[in-house]
Each structure stands twice: as C-alpha cells, then as structure tokens.
Amino acid sequence: MATAQGSTGHGPIKIIQIGAGSMGRGWLRTIADNPDVELVGLVDLDPDLARRAADEAGHQQAVIATSLDALDVSADAVINVTIPEAHASTSQQALFAGLPVLCEKPIAPTVAGGLAMAAAAEASGRLLMISQSRRYVNSFTQYRQLVGDLGRIGTVTCDFFKAPHFGGFRDAMEHPLLVDMAIHTFDASRALLGNNPVSVYCEEYNPSWSWYDGDAAANAIFTFADGTRFGYHGSWCAPGQETSWNGNWRVSAEAGSAAWDGDHEPTAERIDDHEVKIPPSPQTPEYIAGSLVEFVDHLRNGTRPDTHAAANVLSLAMVEAAVRSASVKQPVQIADVITAAHRQATADDHGPRIHAVLESWDVLEVVGLSG
Ligand SMILES: NC(=O)c1ccc[n+]([C@@H]2O[C@H](COP(=O)([O-])OP(=O)(O)OC[C@H]3O[C@@H](n4cnc5c(N)ncnc54)[C@H](O)[C@@H]3O)[C@@H](O)[C@H]2O)c1
C-alpha cells in the first residue's frame, strides 16, 4: 500500500498519479516539467498503458500498479486523473492513507457524491483540491483584476460556441455540453465575480444538424447572491466563427464594461474619469501547470486553494441545477439542489467517518451559500 511520507519541506515532492488516459498523459508531462515534484508511482487499471505513458513522459523510475493498495512506495501526495465515476473511491483511499489529493474536475458525477468527497477530506484531515484548470489563464487573471476595478457589476455574459467532433462517449451523453464542459465556464463565473450563484433558469436543446445524441446547446441565466445576472449561451455544434475554449466574456458594471475573448488581453471602456489600465500579465504557469503550482504551495506552505473540495461543490451544483431547470422548465434554487444532495449523501453508505462529518454539517454554510 502506498504510504504517506509527510516531508514536503525540501527536495522534490513525491507524487503518485492515478489515471494514465488522455488527460493523464498531459499531467505526466506537466509533472515532468515542474522541478518541485517527481513522479514515484503511476496507477491505472491498465498497467501496460501506464508503463508506456510514464516512459513517454520521461518517468522511467516510476513504479506502476493497478491500485493504490498494490503500490509499494512512499509519497507525499496524489494527483487523480481517473474518470469521474472513479474519483470517489480512488481519492478517498488516498486521503485516508494520509495523502493530500489534487483531483481532476468534476469533483464527482453528482453533487451528493461531491459532498461525500468533501466530507472525506474533512474526516481525513487532508486537502482535496479540485483542478479547475481554466482558472489558471494569465489573461483571465488580468480580466478578474480589470473587472474588480469597475465598481458594482450588473451583468456578465459568456458565449461559448464550438463545433468539435469528439466521437466516443460525449456523442452519446444526454447532456454533453452542460455536464462535460459547462463546469469550466460556470466555475470561471464564480472566480470572476468572487460571489456565488443562488438560482438558475436554463433551456437545453439540440440543433437540428447536431451530431450529438443528447442536447448539445444550452442558454442559462444565473442570479448571484449580490443580484448580478450571469448569462451563458453555449453550443457544441456551432460551426463557424467559433469562440475560444474559454468562451467570449463581457461584464457590464457601474463604471463601464470589460470584455475578454478567452485567449488574449482583456479590454475595457470606462465612463468615469479614470484611465483604463490593463493589469500586467502575471506570466505564471497556465492551465493544469497552474493548478499544480497551487497544490505545491499548499504542500509546502499550508495555503488553502480556492478550489478545495467543499468550495468547489457549488460549481458542480450550477451544472446539476441547470440540467434540472431545463428538465422541469422552471427556475431552480441552488440551495435546494445542495440540501437535497446533502440528504442523499447522508442516506448513502459512505462509512461511519464520512457519515459523521456529513451529519455534523450546516451544509449551506459549508459550501459557501450562507453566512
Ligand atoms: N481540465 C480539462 O480541461 C480536462 C480535459 C479532459 C478531461 N478532464 C478530466 O480528466 C479526467 C480523466 O479524463 P480522461 O479524458 O483522461 O479519461 P480517460 O478515459 O482517457 O482516462 C482515464 C484513465 O483512468 C483509468 N482508471 C479508471 N478507473 C480507475 C481506477 N479505479 N483506478 C485506476 N485507474 C482508473 C482508466 O484505465 C483510464 O486509463 C476526468 O475527470 C475528466 O473530466 C479534464
């Protein structure tokens, strides 16, 4: 069984990665590029795939196994890049072995599962951080700063129009855009506003030419706690004039408006006598490399990432609430989604340690919806 080493002060941090699929390969390259970490073990149900993936990324020294149980190495932390359905079992095993976990989004397939994951982190006393890689884009950081200087915000919009032909599981999903992709955009709206959503009205549909079985387009309007409205217009079967994968954003605020095309420096226009100053680019590692830097900072210095498990549940709740709203054709309160999921999680069998934490929670406060 992998054991926790617990010495992250000096030298590279010893990492075990679980999952060597397509995103797993990206993580293996990212670990290889970061001198603060070293891969000591790689776990995948397919050990041949894992060996090949490790070797390709230059991790010849990494030990391969098909489960954390079967891996005989000591380590400081785990990076979890398995499929969403496997996040709970694999992350919980790591947490209860004393290992902090950086887990790919989404935290779990359901909000109830996400709450159980957050409770597992609390019960284990270890960090569970969710990698929301699109928070780590330098021009997005500039945009956040620019928007933060425009006074009260009335409206935020994000247009997301892409036309990828993935093939495979996404083409057969019931809600491919909302469930597989929109969490990135929804999570980014929370990061941008520094605020949380309270309700959503959403319509989901499939354009007649769509090559997806399920609904590949959606329009959603979220109301945030301070009254800001966030409008999301998205389609995954929108050929021509495609937007960035980060979407095309506009903020309308008291002192003016600011736009970000998702890839380049943002722009703004102010109606007061202040000059528009575009903040300098932080020039820090982006996407999953940025996530890894924040995780290392926690391991070395004890900092708490904004995307720790309990705080990240609301991003998944935005997805689940949007899907539910589209189904019932009514606005849905995010708090109702959270409290129903908490009831479900408490009723499910997660073992006594997780159950005790779930039972002790004022769940709306824990996820950041009250107080
Ligand atoms: N941040 C992003 O932009 C982004 C992009 C793509 C995927 N993802 C996320 O990354 C994760 C992985 O996606 P992917 O596309 O690499 O999937 P994938 O199917 O290509 O790979 C998943 C791997 O996990 C392994 N696995 C599954 N269950 C396991 C278990 N119990 N123990 C050990 N290994 C197990 C599989 O054998 C497979 O090799 C998902 O959570 C997905 O949402 C994020």
UniProtKB/TrEMBL annotation:
<dbReference type="GO" id="GO:0016491">
    <property type="term" value="F:oxidoreductase activity"/>
</dbReference>
<protein>
    <submittedName>
        <fullName>Predicted dehydrogenase</fullName>
    </submittedName>
</protein>
<dbReference type="InterPro" id="IPR055170">
    <property type="entry name" value="GFO_IDH_MocA-like_dom"/>
</dbReference>
<feature type="domain" description="GFO/IDH/MocA-like oxidoreductase">
    <location>
        <begin position="148"/>
        <end position="258"/>
    </location>
</feature>
<dbReference type="Pfam" id="PF22725">
    <property type="entry name" value="GFO_IDH_MocA_C3"/>
</dbReference>
<feature type="domain" description="Gfo/Idh/MocA-like oxidoreductase N-terminal">
    <location>
        <begin position="14"/>
        <end position="130"/>
    </location>
</feature>
<dbReference type="InterPro" id="IPR036291">
    <property type="entry name" value="NAD(P)-bd_dom_sf"/>
</dbReference>
<dbReference type="InterPro" id="IPR050463">
    <property type="entry name" value="Gfo/Idh/MocA_oxidrdct_glycsds"/>
</dbReference>
<dbReference type="GO" id="GO:0000166">
    <property type="term" value="F:nucleotide binding"/>
</dbReference>
<dbReference type="InterPro" id="IPR000683">
    <property type="entry name" value="Gfo/Idh/MocA-like_OxRdtase_N"/>
</dbReference>
<dbReference type="Pfam" id="PF01408">
    <property type="entry name" value="GFO_IDH_MocA"/>
</dbReference>
<keyword id="KW-0560">Oxidoreductase</keyword>
